[in-house]
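Re: the 472-residue chain
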Amino acid sequence: MDNKEIKYIIDQIDVPKEEVLNAIDRGIKQSNQTEIKRHSSKKKLLISSIVAASVLGITLSSGFVNPNMNRVLAGAPFIGGIYEEFGDKMGMHLAQQNLVTELDQTITKNGVTVKLNNAYFDNDVVSITGHVSGNLDEGKNEKGEVSFDVNFENNTGDNDPWLNGKSTNIKNTGNGYDFQWKLSYPYKTIQDDFTLPISIHYINGIKGDWNFNIPITQIKNKTLTINHSESYQDEGIQININEMKQAKASSTLVFETVSNYKDDQIDIEKAKDEKGNVLFNYANNTRLSQSKEDDGYHLSLHKTINKIDEDAQSITFYPFMSISDSPVQQLLNSSSFILDSKRTDLAIKVNNITKEDDKLILDYQFQGFEGEISNHRLDLLLNNLSYAFTLIDKNYVDKIDSENPVPPENHSLSRNEVKLIDKKTYQFQSVFHLNGENKIENFSLQDTVLQFDFSSFIKTKELAPFTVDLPK
């Protein structure tokens, strides 16, 4: 049998793609366990390739390599390598399934070259990897630092919805920097295919306008419609689990919170299926919409979570809430009074107010704490008290924007020095320096309001977990 016949026979072998990729994955894991950290990623790839070759009984030195094998090996380990470097398990999984798009788009401006290499889209997660090189040290950043001023979908500035939840990973490669942007899809209705314009305005302060158009594609999701509502009447809130979307490497939870108070924070801390598999712990949310309706303030959100097992039958959710409590205030025309929290049992009892030269001294007790306070919590309490009080000129109180409550310059004072007087009775003293950088012009007690914000002293409340059955 001559070489042509041997090659023909080898070419007819049907390579089991899944088994090959599994063998590669095992080889990478085995090599990671045995080699020293300083070994290069190239050696990892070499070891994994040899493992895969030995599994299939292919003699590389013979010169006869099955073309089907070539196609299998062409993408996964090399594209997946960048995701391994960034610790992106989702990207590694999608690379193994050939669900990563190769981009190979390069632009050079003002001595800086940006090359976008790969992209993937799974559920509501969009990832873009690339490499930047050139005259980066000529910018405004410190040597070894890289920063991008970038917008997506022709948006501008911080109002770009793609920037909400955006994360950046950067690694020095010696001849430049590899980077990965991970974005949360910002819209309620997800397109399976679209083009994402990317506009990089500055890199390290170097202006260049690197503009790309990136094709984004994912396999159609499977949507589980749930429509489960859980009410917590004592707290005046409701959580609606609307649907769960399953993609190739992840799932997405779409839910809604309803509260009588606009600024209450209601979220789900974790979730797990009936087998105890944890789907997420403290996963970030993407805000989809918010509105004021007859039954309260509605906030629609989604969060990316681990992929749900195909045979999962139910999921238990563990919610929590942090209540909002608007600031309370009192005119300083009296030397003693009580400031009561509007939604809790907390209170500030002001025992005495004295003015000594350029100092205003408050002696007070913090009421409503349960049990003995630990040293750690005491440190937090002292820190928060130094920012919780605000002195405001009474003529400017009504001019503060409730949506952006910035104290009026030269008519307010919001920093004080706190000292513990008596730990058992929670007695403190706060000293305001009236002639500091922040001050109130023409200060007088009769024309000044003392404002206190209880929000940072209210504990986050864990709510009772609830379970939803998944539709079959």
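The two ends are 56 Å apart (CA to CA).
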